[in-house]
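Hi R.,

Here's the chain you asked about this morning:
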Amino acid sequence: MPDRQSTNDNNPFAPPPEGQPDQPWQPRLPEGSDERPAGGPGWSSSQPGRSSDGFGSRPERPSGGGQGGGPDGGQGPGLRWDPTDPAQRRARYAVLSGMWAFFFSFFVQELALLLGALGAYWAISALRTRAKAPEGPPSPAQTAAAATANRAKQTAAISGLVASALALMIVASGFLVHFVYRDFYECRTDALTKQSQLACNDLLPKPLQDTLGVRE
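And the predicted structure, written out as tokens:
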């Protein structure tokens, strides 16, 4: 095995000499040389400098912390909704519940009824909740952010309410049809043959036989 002291001094990855404690990494220089890299300890003298277009520089943070860069940790002008606001969360829940309720109203009416009721409740609750007034005189940025968030909340809540109402109307219409023409549905369920099922169509009005009746 070669002697560790014979390692090339210009090799930055060479192990330290025997008996010398560990030190932070820096380029190994010949003995007696007082030169140091221009970029400071730990950097090569051939390291390219920072370009004039700002590449490699750390982006400056806007004044004032908080979410969205708003003053006093508040909501920034670019943030459309605040996830910590219960009213805005309910508005988003109402949109999701209304959309899924409308989808399931054509397949699983029981689930659509549950989702539609929840969506309508969340939408009405979001519309009735007023925005919390900021402490002290609001700045123009806070006023603009609050107005944007309030419009987004109202749009989401109204959309969820409309979708939930449509889903509930479809479910209610299905329940009403089954109640009014329950004789037809009972006849179709109890029928044992195709011919007996076709005979159940006589229990429906003529305009509804092609829509709700049993087809050949």
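The radius of gyration is 36 Å.

Let me know if you need anything else.
M.
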